[in-house]
Amino acid sequence: FYQPGTYPFLKATIQFYSDKSVLENILKEIKEQERKKQEEEQKRLQELERLRQEEEQKKQEEEKTRQEQLKLQEEERLKKAKEEEYKLRTIQSGSFRLHIDQHNRFHIYYGEQELTKGTGINIGMLSEGNWYSSCDSQIEIKRPSTHKMLIQLIHNKLPLIYSWQIDFKPEGIVTWDVDISFKESLRIDQNNAYLFLSKSYNNWIASPEQGSFPSSFGPNWQRMNACENNSEFIGLYSSLEEFPDIICKNSKDSKSLLIIQNTDTNLSSRTLEFQIEDNKEFYQPGTYPFFKAEIQFYSDKSVLENILKKIREKERQKQEEERKKQEEE
Question: Which alpha helices (H) appear in the chain, and where do they start and end?
C-alpha cells in the first residue's frame, strides 16, 4: 500500500549499437564464462568421483584385508582344533603310535609303518543272527594321562555302550580292558575281539604250535591254530625289520579262546582273535565286564626268536620222550 505522496520509481539505460560486433563480443564473454563455469563444475564433479572411488577402493581393500585376517584366524583355529583332536585320538609310546581316525578305526604304527589293517582293533557281536561291529558307534574319548585312553562307543544299532580302556605303556605293552553297559535286555550269541594286522606278517605262533600263512587269500577265513587246547599266547612275526613281532595273551581274569586266522580276499589281513567265552545268552540292563587282554610289541626280534627256540626244544624233547616210550612198548 502506498500512501499519498511522490516516490522514485525507475531508472534505466537503453543502449543502441549500430556496430553489431560490440554485442557479439559481449555474448562471447558470457559464453566463455559459462564454459569455464561448466568446466570447473565438471572438474569438481570428477574430483568428487575420484575421491569417492578412492574411498570405495580403500573400503574394499580394508574389507579384503579383514576377510583375509578372518580366514587366517579361522584356518589357525581349525588347525589348532585339528591338532587337539589328533592329540586326543593319539597315544605315542616311543616308536609306537595308536591313532583313532574319524571312522572309529584303530591304527597302530611303528615309526611311519602301519602295522594294522582295516578297522585295526574291533569287537564283533553276533545277536539274533546278525553281526555288529563296534566301529558302528558314536565315540567319546577322554585322556586321563598321556599313555591312557578312555573310550565310550555308543552303538548306533544296538542298545549298548562299550567302555574301553587302552593303556599303551612305554615298553611296548598295550592293555585293553572292555566293559559293556546294556540299556535294555539283549540276546548275545557270540562275542569276538579282533586285532587286524598287515599281510606282511607271514608267520604265526600259538604256543606250542607255529607255522606260516598261505601266500594268498581265498574267499573264506581260514583258521591257522588248532582248537583242541587254548594257547598260553598267540602271536605274529615278519621277516621285515619294520614290522615288530606281536604277542597277544589273556589277562589273568580273562578266559577268552585265542585264535589266529587268515581273512578272506576282501580284508586281506591276518587276525589275532579273542573269542569271548560266556555262558550268558540274554543280558539284562546293567554294566558287565567283557574281557581283558594284553598285546606286546617286540621291536627286538631276538626276544620272540628265543621264545620260539624254547618252544622247539620242548617239542623236540616231547617227541624224543614219545619215541622212547614207543620203543619200550
Answer: 21-88, 301-328
Report pTM: 0.77
Please give the order of strands across the beta sheet that includes 96-100.
90-93, 96-100, 106-110, 113-114
Decide if 133 contacts 119 (C-beta within 8 A). Answer: yes
Is residue 269 a contact partner of residue 197, using CB atoms and an 8 Å limit?
yes
Q: Cell for 235?
A: 602271536
Tell me the β-bridge partners of 165.
150, 177
φ and ψ at 293, to 5 degrees?
Answer: -145, 165
Residues 214-251, buried b or exposed e (16+ Cβ, 10 A)?
eeebeeeeeebbeeeebbebbbbbbeeeebbbbbbbbe
Q: pLDDT tens digits for 220-235?
A: 999 998 766 677 889 9
Q: How far apart are CA 192 and CA 276, in angstroms?
A: 6
Cross-strand bridge partners of residue 247: 235, 296
Q: Distance between CA atoms of 283 and 290, rounded to whole angstroms?
A: 12
Tell me which residue of 247, 145, 252, 124 sits closest to 189, measured CA to CA. 124
